[in-house]
Design goal:
alpha+beta, two-stranded antiparallel sheet, 11 helices, 68% helix, 10% strand, rod-shaped
Length: 400
């Protein structure tokens, strides 16, 4: 047994109290006659009303027992204590309202049928004293039974409509709460991804500074120290060391500019992807002395995230070739074919074993960039045979 709190059914609760108060009023004042029978009838109505504060909602047995007791109370008060048919009408109506809260549709119809049977039986079984009024009274009784049946059906439909509305509202509230929880989970996940991406980028920059700029500045310091050692005893040798230190300083400055370029949030800065890649290739040729061959054939426009991803992968690939490949030839192709975008970067350098290169931030970053926008990243390399990087984007990712 659980207590029914009527969270969204205060109207039904007030209506039930009103019907019970009306039954008490009719028993007391129509007409008023104090007797033990009146007290028993009022006690029966009060007991029926108190039963409404605890409705069975768990097992079928307790619900059937509750309904049987309620019908028994009505029959006992009507047959033994003289409860009026008007009060029977109201109590049966209240019982039908309660059945909507404890039974499904079949149980509700059963309670409705029993209520109609009880009211009709009690009404039609009352004796008619004046014989001449027999026909009129029977007509009035039949009308009363018909009115009662229509009232019960209306009450049943109304309460079921209210129940359906409450259930829909509760489901909507649950869905709203689940949506808020999901939104918060997505926000937390986005924050974790952002933190992870920031950490990876920080680690990559730290490695770039250590491997590139750090080594260059360390070598420059050595050359300056050598120049200081020989600047009095051997001017030519000291001058050579100073020139080498100057060259290393220029390389360090170039490394800083390259790092700043990588960190820019919008590397294209209003220029087309083709122009940006050609500028990368020109800078690569000026830095390394290697003239890359290239083929760029792109549609008029691509999504911004695809443009940025292609640019970053070309940029990172050229940086890796410059630092590690020891290549003499580089080929870059960006073409559109069959609605797909294909990027291929190939060099003839010393190559490496991809299965053993597990610490490189560059390759990992390129793979993650391609995957983030739905692209497919492939790497082919062997010792002594150079390296080839291929990235493909499906039509669904390249169409604006």
């Amino acid at each position: 047994m659980v207590r029914l709190t009527y969270p969204s059914f205060r109207l039904l609760l007030y209506l039930e109290w009103l019907l019970l108060a009306t039954a008490v009023f009719m028993e007391v004042l129509l007409p008023f006659e104090f007797s033990w029978s009146l007290l028993l009838r009022l006690g029966a109505i009060a007991a029926f009303g108190l039963m409404g504060f605890r409705l069975p909602r768990v097992t079928l047995g307790t619900r059937l027992f509750y309904t049987t007791v309620a019908f028994g109370l009505i029959w006992l008060a009507a047959t033994q204590d003289g409860l009026s048919t008007r009060s029977v009408f109201l109590l049966c109506l209240v019982l039908v309202m309660r059945s909507c809260l404890i039974f499904k549709r079949s149980g509700q119809l059963l309670v409705l049928g029993l209520s109609l049977f009880s009211y009709g039986t009690l009404l039609l079984s009352k004796p008619i004293m004046p014989q001449k009024l027999k026909a009129a009274v029977w007509d009035w009784r039949l009308s009363n039974v018909l009115l009662f049946s229509l009232t019960l059906v209306f009450a049943l439909l109304l309460i079921n409509a209210l129940l359906a509305e409450r259930q829909s509202r509760e489901q909507l509230q649950i869905a709203h709460q689940e949506l808020e929880i999901t939104h918060e989970q997505l926000r937390q996940y986005a924050l974790r991804i952002e933190d992870q991406a920031t950490l990876q980028e920080r680690n990559r920059i730290a490695r770039e500074i250590h491997d590139g700029l750090g080594h260059t500045l360390a070598a420059q310091t050595i050359q300056i120290n050598n120049a200081l050692l020989f600047w009095q005893s051997n001017d030519d040798k000291a001058l050579t060391f100073i020139k080498q230190a100057k060259q290393l300083g220029a390389e360090a400055l170039l490394e800083i500019r390259r790092s700043v370029s990588v960190l820019r949030s919008n590397p294209l800065q209003g220029q087309s992807l083709e122009s940006a890649i050609e500028k990368l290739l020109t800078n690569f040729e000026q830095t390394t002395g290697i003239k890359p061959s290239h083929k760029i054939n792109l549609p008029l426009s691509l999504p911004t995230e695809v443009n940025t991803t292609l640019y970053r992968i070309v940029q990172e690939s050229l940086t890796n070739i410059y630092k590690h490949a020891q290549a003499t030839g580089v080929t870059v192709e960006v073409v559109s074919q069959g609605g797909m975008i294909h990027l291929a970067i190939e060099d003839n350098g010393k190559g490496f074993n991809p299965t053993q290169n597990t610490t490189g931030f560059g390759l990992q970053g390129m793979r993650e960039r391609a995957s983030a926008v739905g692209g497919q990243f492939n790497l082919h390399s062997q010792l002594g045979t150079g390296c080839r990087i291929c990235v493909s984007f499906p039509p669904s990712k390249v169409l604006l």
